[in-house]
Write a structure and sequence with these properties.
alpha+beta, eight-stranded mixed beta sheet, five-stranded mixed beta sheet, 8 helices, binds 2,5-anhydro-1,6-di-O-phosphono-D-mannitol, binds magnesium ion
Length: 337
């Protein structure tokens, strides 16, 4: 059809969220405004990431610019962009960023009821070789009009109102859940708008891919080692799984969500609370999305979203993905006792 050549009824992310929020009569548009500011941050970072290679080529990175200021590293720049966008939304009260040791308490004059936890640019060590990187975020709301404290963000992931990530890859994709399923939007660079391209994402019940840094195998615990062995040498006659590991959590989780399978960042004998993944701004948002898409997320001990963090930069092992695949690793940990 000629008419199909130009889609004229575009579902932008703003329109989508406005529609969703209008189901709640008490909604005053605050969430939509907050989300618009997050989207702005994502567009800014997308544009900066796309220019990163060029900046290097013309000798900007790490050097001083015309104003005599040192060129900011992209992760530092991204953090500043998100902090400013979130504060200026007038809808936030507490911000927790991977880049900042302390939480930011928003000035009372600009305060709202949302708390945002985020990793502004995850996987930034991948920038120089052009591998996909991303922003991850989770959103809580403080209960009543009390003075915000850290306890408002030290909440289990199941209390999140919304979570999402933006992947800066071959295209710029924003995946979002407000607790009613998962939807994916792709940035149309010519419009500067995120358009709904992946409505109601459901993760396959079982997948054919496992994703883990196998270089750490010597430090794995029994259940993880057994699970990966089973992926490679299944004893039940099923075919072995493929290994895919990008080393960029957003990209590895995005593939897992769309194609199915399992992503593992297991415990490590050498550093039991060592690198692992951050609870607030990595484990919780990704687990929230997985569950909303019909998958599961497990820490090795419990449902990931039940974890109660005791500090803002707390870390945890994580196993997430297709329902049946996570079920298998849960069984191995249960057998261990
Ligand atoms: P970063 O926080 O230093 O940017 O690293 C985060 C990245 C994640 O995106 C990815 O899942 C993980 O580090 C990979 O870690 P490893 O190199 O241990 O496999
Ligand atoms: Mg990170």
């Amino acid at each position: 059809h000629a008419a199909d050549a130009h889609r004229t009824d575009l579902m932008t992310i703003t329109r989508f969220v406005l529609n969703e929020q209008s189901k709640y009569p008490e909604s005053r548009g605050d969430f939509t405004i907050l989300l618009n500011h997050i989207v702005l941050g994502c567009k800014f970072v997308c544009s900066a990431v796309n220019k990163a290679g060029l900046a290097k080529l013309i000798g900007l990175a790490g050097e001083t610019n015309v104003q005599g200021e040192e060129q900011k590293k992209l992760d530092v720049l991204s953090n500043e962009v998100f902090v400013k966008a979130l504060v200026s939304s007038g809808r936030t009260c507490i911000l927790v960023s991977e880049e900042d040791e302390e939480a930011t308490f928003v000035d009372p004059s600009k305060r709202g009821r949302y708390c945002v936890v985020f990793d502004p640019l995850d996987g930034s060590s991948n920038i120089d070789c052009g591998v996909s990187i991303g922003t991850i975020f989770g959103i809580y709301m403080i209960k009543d009009n009390h003075e915000p404290t850290l306890d408002d963000v030290l909440q289990p992931g199941k209390q999140m109102l919304a979570a999402g990530y933006c992947m800066y890859g071959s295209s710029c994709t924003l995946v979002l859940s407000t607790g009613e399923g998962v939807n994916g939007f792709t940035l149309d660079p010519s419009l500067g708008e995120f358009i709904l391209t992946h409505p109601d994402i459901k993760i396959p019940k079982k997948g054919k891919i496992y994703s883990v840094n196998e270089g750490n195998a010597k430090n794995w615990d029994g259940p993880t080692a057994k699970y990966v062995e089973k992926c490679k040498f299944p004893k039940d006659g099923s075919s072995s799984k493929s290994l895919r590991y990008i080393g960029s959590m957003v990209a590895d989780v995005h593939r897992t969500l769309l194609y199915g399978g399992i992503f593992l960042y297991p415990a490590d004998k050498k550093s039991p609370s060592g690198k692992l993944r951050s609870v607030l701004y990595e484990v919780f948002p990704m687990s929230f999305l997985m569950e909303q898409a019909g998958g599961q997320a497990f820490t090795g001990k419990q449902r990931a979203l039940d974890l109660v963090p005791t500090k803002i930069h707390e870390r945890s092992p994580i196993f997430l993905g297709s329902f049946d695949d996570v079920e298998d690793i849960k069984a191995l940990y249960a057998a261990e006792g």
